[in-house]
Amino acid sequence: MQQPKFIPLNAPELGPEEQAKRASDFFELMNRRRTVREYSPREVPLELIEKAVATAGTAPSGANMQPWRFVVVRDAEVKRKIREAAEKEERESYSSRMSEKWLRRLAPLGTDEHKPFLEIAPYLIIVFRITSVEENGETEPTYYSQESVGIAVGLLLAALHNMGLATLTHTPSPMKFLQEILGRPRNEVPFVLIPVGYPAEDARVPDIKRKPLEEIMQVI
Ligand code: IYR
């Protein structure tokens, strides 16, 4: 077995005032984040996307296996193929695969099978979950990969929002076509597809509310 090696933690203490200020500033920032479905085609520097993905890559992960891959698509032809395949699945889902209950839940969001944002947004980030690794000719699963990738995506969305970019957590279902179009191996399973860009100038979002703190938190 490999012996652990430890180094000092780099975590300077902030002090209570600075803590309170940061706590509320970060809440205000994140509370303004909205899922956006209407994008501007305006270009976004790749360096910003790189920084956001690097931020996502700081997420904790099971056994530190970092079971994620972020495929950044900016090529118009690849985006077109993704839109075509996603809309094909979504047509099927909206017309017969999703239950009445499910459709009723989605009604306030105003979603349907049309996904123009897949071609309009300057980038699509497709996040893959790596389910296993090969070592010395042997296959080993990754551990807690769903949780790990979910946390990484949370950091990715926060990083992009913090730099003034809009996102949509889109999960066309099933997502296997993404593996095929993007040529990823079988141990990389699509997790979520995230269009990224500036919102359209006249972008609108559904008038929906977040649950209040009292409803989501219990202190014992
Ligand atoms: N994947 C479909 C349907 C959809 C499902 C859920 I759950 C949502 O919160 C939103 C949409 C779509 O993207 O339209």
Brief sketch in words of this structure:
This protein has 220 residues and is an alpha+beta fold. It has helices at residues 16-31, 46-56, 76-97, 100-106, 117-120, 145-162, 176-182, 213-216; strands at 68-73, 123-130, 132-135, 138-141, 166-167, 188-197.
Keywords:
NADH Oxidase, globular, binds 3-iodo-tyrosine, four-stranded antiparallel β-sheet, 220 residues, 6 strands, alpha+beta, two-stranded antiparallel ribbon, 8 helices
What does this structure look like?
- With 220 residues, the protein is of the alpha+beta class.
- It has eight helices and six strands, in the order H-H-E-H-H-H-E-E-E-H-E-H-E-H.
- Helix 2 (46-56) runs antiparallel to helix 6 and helix 3 (76-97) packs antiparallel against helix 7.
- The model has no long low-confidence stretch (mean pLDDT 98).
- The N and C termini lie far apart (40 Å).
- Helix content is 40%, strand content 15%.
- It is globular, with a radius of gyration of 20 Å.
- It has one domain (36-200): NADH Oxidase.
- The strands form two sheets. The protein has a four-stranded antiparallel sheet with strand order 1-2-6-5.
- The protein has helices spanning 16-31, 46-56, 76-97, 100-106, 117-120, 145-162, 176-182, 213-216; strands at 68-73, 123-130, 132-135, 138-141, 166-167, 188-197.
- Residues 90, 106, 109, 111, 170-173 line the site of 3-iodo-tyrosine.
CATH topology heading: NADH Oxidase
- Spatially, the strands of the biggest sheet line up as 1-2-6-5
What's the CATH architecture name?
3-Layer(aba) Sandwich
What are the segments in which pLDDT stays under 50 over at least 5 consecutive residues? none
So what's the overall shape?
Answer: globular
Order of helices and strands: HHEHHHEEEHEHEH
Helical region count?
8
Question: What Rg, in angstroms, do the CA atoms define?
Answer: 20 Å
Overall mean pLDDT: 98
Look at the structure and give the CATH class: Alpha Beta
